[in-house]
Amino acid sequence: MWKRHPGLVPESGKKHLEEKHSLYDMPHPPQSHPLRADPRIMAFSYTQLIGITNNFARNIGKGGFGVVFHGCLENGKQVAVKLHSQSSPQGEKQFVAEVQNLTRIHHKNLVELIGYCIDGVGLALIYEYMAQGNLHDHLIGKAGRILSWSERLKIAIGAAEGLEYLHHKCLPPIIHRDVKPSNILLGPDLEAKIADFGLSKAYRGDNETNVSTNVVGTPGYVDPEYHNTLQLTAKSDVYGFGVLLFELLTGQFPLVPSSGKPHIVQRVTSKLVYTPIDAIMDPRLGGQFDANSAWKVEELAEQCTQASGSRRPTMTKVILELKDSLELEVGRLNSKLKHSEDIDTSLMSSFEIEGDTPGPSLPFAR
Question: Where does ATP bind (predicted)?
Fold first, then answer.
């Protein structure tokens, strides 16, 4: 359907970049389309995307929709340009759904949509740029740093607040349907924002109303109840979030086919029957976590991944539990800091006492 590929940029596109008028004069306005976006969301032509991304020079990721490129607007604002791939199973329908959802939802823990392109040459979404990448890359060590336990908890709280907004504060409510670490983006200070709404679905929301639909999502994160009954509720997102919590605890992948217990829920819960919490924690944490805090998160993860959706907590309850867990970890860190300061004070006092000790008396010079 789409005739142009980022690697085959036409000469006319390059010529456009050399023209003196603004890149946003929109000499090639998008074709008419049933999409009715928020007027605050900018509509871009494909030619403009070439300029924004410097001819799609920097690839920063890939998802179900296509490849994501780094870009920069005229005002200096960095953006992420998600360009549709011809090989993607997600098409124009998912694209329109994502734009329509993002134009009506605004929350500090949801990625901000800046614009879109649908001009007959290509499909693209333009998002705010998240400097620290996604949570998945951090958990597998690709980001070049190890997340501390307190950082993991703060990220979990941010993502949970984003989901709570979708489930309980949007009208109509929205079910994300693809909650996983690669869809949790991180800002400069590791602030978490949920991304990728291509599979999300609005529902009536009264009394957790079920929505009959075909099963979509990522293996390992799909709610078994949804898979078996084809009935979707907000609790399906809660299940995916529970799997994410197990990943934060262990640093493991959700599915390990070669294992006797391939799913992370089975692996963790069976191991904890006979062992302490330390046995399942990510070894890269080096034991630096409050055990009670970790136990609380593990128990919460188990609740979120109950077989029956009715037994899973709401995201509001999840947030409260996570904040309690963070408070325990902060208490440990403060205690550790105070202990360190006490040691420093003790050493300083010892040094001062030794320095004040009088030496041997010397006769006064005549």
Answer: 82
Residue 124 host element (H or E): strand 123-128
In the chain, what are the domains?
A: 11-128 (3.30.200.20), 135-330 (1.10.510.10)
Name beta bridge partners: 174: 202
What is residue 351's predicted lDDT score, i.e. its pLDDT?
58
Considering 119, 178, 223, 290, which one is annotated as catalytic?
Answer: 178
Is the pTM higher than 0.85? The answer reads: no
324 among known catalytic residues: no
Residue pLDDT, tens place only, 131-188:
999 999 999 999 888 999 999 999 999 999 999 999 999 988 999 999 999 999 999 9
Percent of the chain at pLDDT above 70? 77
What is the CB neighbour count within 10 angstroms for residue 75?
6
82 has binding-site annotation: yes
Q: Of 275, 276, 272, 256, whose CA–CA distance to 264 is shortest?
A: 256
Preceding peptide of 172 cis, ω within 30°: yes
